[in-house]
Every structure is written in structure tokens, then in C-alpha cells.
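Please review the protein record below. Let me know how this chain folds according to its C-alpha cells.
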Amino acid sequence: MLKKLGVQIVVVLVGALFFTAYAQTTTVGTISGTVRDEKGAVVPKAEVSIQGEGTGTSRTVKSDDNGFYLAPSLPAGLYTVSTAPSGFKKTVATAVDLHVAENKVVNLDLQVGQVSETVTVSSNAAPVETRSGEISSLITEKQVTELPLNGRNYAQLALMVPGVSPVTQAGAGGAFGTAGTGLDSHVDMSVNGNQSNANMWTVDGVNNMDVGSNATLLIFPSVDSIQEFRVERNSFSAEYGQAQGAVINLITKGGSNQFHGAGFEFIRSDKLNATDFFL
């Protein structure tokens, strides 16, 4: 009897671990590309170095027989991608800005020459996603910190995304309102015509929804701690389960090699309001 009970407990614990992992979403990105020479021929077995500009962390991968290299599971941030095969100049791509849940393509075109010579490539052009059919919108750190927010609640920024419509009349789920916190703050919004409670909000990969109503958030990270968030609204990966409408995937800031910080003063008082013209 005790042995049978022990087996049942183990099954329950394994199931709990499975469902816990299922509720997580990705918080990293991927850098990949193809290494080619001046004539467009692929360069196999080339060592490609990916170095984080903020932390100095480095990862080295090799291109395959087709010249393709892949560096998965990289934290969002700025990177320098470089390679220096024998017989070619060192090619460096700087300021590669990797965002959450992004597959960044960085192709490296080599030039014949000495390894001591360096070719630096820099591009600010917005990349076109060609390896996935998902439709998403990124809300950057600049938008989070500089756009006016009532109550410093980041949820309001999701309304800027195409296809998102807030619920304006209070019903069973309540209307969209971010002035309060906890149960007083509803994030009822319809994405692409889906139900307003069919969305999933995550913070650093963990579900941030009240599972009872699926319409209120559990925590509200300070806008100063938010690095960025992505609104996945169509054709997203199967890893984003539990959502028929959209997945709002937020990541918080990490540290770097430089000391930095921020401060703010938030005050709201009717003493600062303009005088009423009729009084």
C-alpha cells in the first residue's frame, strides 16, 4: 500500500514539473547566418565568435558544410559577431541588437587578405523575418521609459500594437483599466478578434496572469526595470501555449560590466492642476 502511494506521489510531482515548464516562454534570442567569400561561395568550418558588448561574455560556434552557423539561447542585448578564417581578413559585425524571441540573421561576407586586417560591418536597417511566419510587435526600452503612462503601468503600451482593441464596457471580465494594481487593474483586450481573456502575459518567461479570470496581472514591474517586451499576436510558435489571442512576453533588465542606475520622482497632486477658467 505504501509503495503504491509512493509511486502516485512521484507521478504527481513529475506532472507538476511538466506543467511548470509548459507555462514558461522564451526569454532569449538566436543569432545565425551564413559565412561566404567574395564570390558568394560558402566557407565551411569557420569559427564565429559572438561577444556581448555589455557583459563581455563570449560564445564560439562553427559554420557547417553549408557555411551556416547558429548561436541559440542568447540573452537580449548588443553583440559583436566576428570571424577570421585562414586566408581572409577578419570580418566584424558590430552593434548587433538582439531582442527577445528574435532570430537575428547576420551574414558574414569575407574578403581575401591578412588576418591582421579587419573589415567592420555595421547596419541599422530593420531586418525582415524570413525564417518564421509569426507576426509580432516589439515595445522597446525607450518606449517604456519615455512614453507617458498613467500610474507607470506598462500594460497600456500593448494598446499601440495593431489588431489590439481594449474592452471599453465593464462586463463579466471588466473593462481595460490600468490605473490600479492587482484585481483593480484589468487587462481585458481583444487581439485580432479573439476573446479578451484569451491572452497570456509573462515576466521573464513565467506566467503573470491571475488564472481565475485570466484578465488581471499578478505583478507590475517598475518601468525602470523593464528591458523590453514583445507582443506575439499571430502564427507564433507552439511553445506559447495557453493563449488563443496574444502572448505578451516581457523581460527585465540584466547587469553589465559598467556601474549604472536610475532614479525618479513620481507625484500626483491636485495642487498642481491648472486653475479652472470658470471658478
Notes: Residues 28-121 form a domain with the Immunoglobulin-like fold (CATH 2.60.40.10).
